[in-house]
Amino acid sequence: SYELTQPPSVSVSPGQTARITCSGDALPKKYAYWYQQKSGQAPVLVIYEDSKRPSGIPERFSGSSSGTMATLTISGAQVEDEADYYCYSTDSSGNHRGVFGTGTKVTVL
Amino acid sequence: QVQLQESGPGLVKPSQTLSLTCTVSGGSISSGGYYWSWIRQHPGKGLEWIGYIYYSGSTYYNPSLKSRVTISVDTSKNQFSLKLSSVTAADTAVYYCARRARGGGSYYEDYWGQGTLVTVSS
Fold first, then answer.
1. pLDDT tens digits, residue range B66-97?
2. What b/e sequence results for B33-43 when a residue is b if at least 16 CB atoms lie within 10 Å of its CB, and e otherwise?
3. Nearest 5°: phi and psi at B73?
């Protein structure tokens, strides 16, 4: 079955840049999306269609995708950005099955 | 702005059927243009996509759960529901409902409910 692979954890100092990668075979043909999930809360969409930012999401969040890898970048990370981040995409079947990445814990300290 | 709210029993016995409902406000399910999804998250683990339904009743389920899952819609109440049969402790999770949007040929969940914890235990 289709999988999206992320590093388990990323640590960054406040004000520095954090980069989270997501690897998947279908990413050259499918958009990547990114969700932020803070402890005890529902996921929130922070990037859609590889690089677009929903209304209300700070500009320090950006996304890119090249080949089989998508990347979420947090430029100038803040303490409040500490959370789990999940990439998401759909498989290549006509049914567009949703697939979440394995998740990355971002620690800002 | 659309809002979603899950409801249902927080405790289900093994071998029974888990039943949850998602009530949508701020938008009509029957207006079309969106699908409606269920996702779950086992305690301390990642997100697992369960499946979706369209207002017309068409569905698609994750093959890993397909034999036990049924998603239905009640447009008169602006609700959609999840049933998961023959549950075991492995089905203990927080269950989320979400709106599924289409963009550029892909689909993604843009608005989520707050989630509800369902524990499977005797």
1. 999 999 999 999 999 999 999 999 999 999 99
2. ebbbbbbbbee
3. -135, 145
Nearest to A48 among B63, B103, B113 (CB): B103
Q: Is the pLDDT of residue A18 over 90?
A: yes
- Exposed / middle / buried, residue A74 (Cβ in 10 Å: 0-12, 13-18, 19+): buried
Average pLDDT over residues A73-87: 98
Residue found by looking up tokens 């992320």 in the block: A6
Q: Does A34 touch chain B (CB under 8 A)?
A: no
Name the minimum distance, in Å, from the CA of B62 to any CA of chain A. Answer: 7
The reported pLDDT for the residue numbered A66 is: 97
> How close are the terminal C-alpha atoms of chain B, in Å?
39
Q: Which of B46, B104, B106 sits opposite A103 (nearest CB)?
A: B46
Query: Residues 69..108 of A with a Cβ closer than 8 Å to B: which?
Result: 86, 88-90, 95-103
Q: What are phi and psi of A32, to 5 degrees?
A: -105, 145
Distance CA B98, CA B37 (A): 5
B36 Cα to chain A: minimum distance (Å): 12
pLDDT at position B24 is 98
pLDDT at A64 over 90: yes
Q: What is the mean pLDDT of chain A?
A: 95
